[in-house]
Design a protein that fits this description.
The model is unreliable at 180-187 (pLDDT under 50). Helices cover 74% and strands 0% of the residues. The protein contains 8 helices and no strands. Helix 6 crosses helix 8. The longest helix is centred in the middle third of the chain and has 26 residues, at 72-97.
Length: 187
């Protein structure tokens, strides 16, 4: 069996023994979701890249993953969540202390970018506990039970936070003049 087909647990054991290929496979498997979570939570590409790097360095330096508590990806996103919170605390401490297109296609593309920008801004303005459930459930496609495990709360709490977050987003977007859509968040 090739290394690509190994389970996350097997690859982690190989990483612990210094196998660089195993680390690269794990990184390729999980970097995208970790980065997207960090990007949606921070709203900043550079911060998301830094957090993603910190998550994988932490994985290498011995933070222990317990398979019985959920998937490796859920664990890594949990580490990213803690890193985002740390970044936010540091920021607040600093702040308080010291292609070819026709014209019509181009306009449609610009309008979509404006809508996405407004949606991203509205998501970033949500309180963190609401933002987390929107990012996990609506943007990352995590099911409610997995989100509850990742966030360390009850399934009903995830559902109520998500319901409330969607209502807040809808109200914010309507106030900003964006039309109401029935589809999932496209961010």
């Amino acid at each position: 069996m090739g290394a690509e087909q190994l389970s996350d647990g097997d690859l982690l054991r190989r990483c612990a023994n210094g196998d660089e290929e195993a680390f690269l496979i794990l990184y390729r498997r999980h970097q995208g979701p970790v980065f997207r979570f960090a990007l949606h939570m921070s709203g900043n590409r550079e911060i998301a890249e830094e957090i993603t790097q910190e998550v994988f360095v932490a994985m290498l330096t011995g933070q222990r993953y317990a398979p019985e508590q959920g998937s490796l990806q859920a664990y890594l996103i949990g580490v990213a969540r803690n890193q985002v919170r740390r970044q936010r605390r540091e920021f607040h401490a600093l702040a308080s202390g010291e292609a070819d297109s026709t014209g019509e296609q181009l306009l449609d593309e610009l309008a979509r970018e404006q809508e996405l920008g407004a949606l991203r801004k509205a998501i970033l303005k949500l309180p963190p506990n609401y933002r987390e459930v929107v990012v996990l459930c609506d943007l990352e496609g995590v099911d409610y039970a997995q989100a509850a495990r990742q966030l360390g709360c009850a399934l009903g709490t995830v559902r109520s936070r998500l319901h409330r977050a969607r209502a807040i987003l809808q109200a914010k977007l309507q106030r900003s003049g964006m039309p109401r859509r029935r589809e999932k968040c496209p961010v």
